[in-house]
Amino acid sequence: MQNSEALALSAALLAAAGELTRRINDGVVARGFEGRPSYGFAFARLAPDGATVSEIGAHLGVTKQAASQLVDELVRKGYVERRPHPVDARARLVVLTEHGWECTRAAEEAAAEAVRAWADVLGEGEVRVLYDRLARIAPYGPIRPVW
Q1: What is the largest CA-CA distance in the chain?
Q2: Using CA atoms, how far apart are residues 98 and 100, in angstroms rounded to an integer?
Q3: Element of type H or E holding 95
Q4: How far apart are CA 83 and CA 116, in angstroms?
Q5: pLDDT tens, position by position, 70-86
């Protein structure tokens, strides 16, 4: 693959990721939830068992202080709560509240709508192939924005 083709592929993947993030966030907001994409990136780490502020910061690629500010915001909005950590008395576990889970379900619905739009263009089989190929390239790891 030529450098220019690699750059074009990179740009297309980044554009698709940006559009997907926007569509999911817009869908969440349309379903009555206040939020921004960083909430969803944090929720991805919190579900299903919760996380410490340090773990959220590592997941998002931000400082512990920035993660703490985000958690404070999410607590104020009723999406998460802090609980005693089950094994580390010094730490607090941040977990989704029922409102946070409802928001997560709204994000899943919005993601499904966005992917259905891809299937309208590519066909269901091609979307499955796309998923399989992308999962081979990036199978694990945090889903985080590039700040």
Answers
A1: 54
A2: 5
A3: strand 92-96
A4: 38
A5: 999 999 999 999 999 98
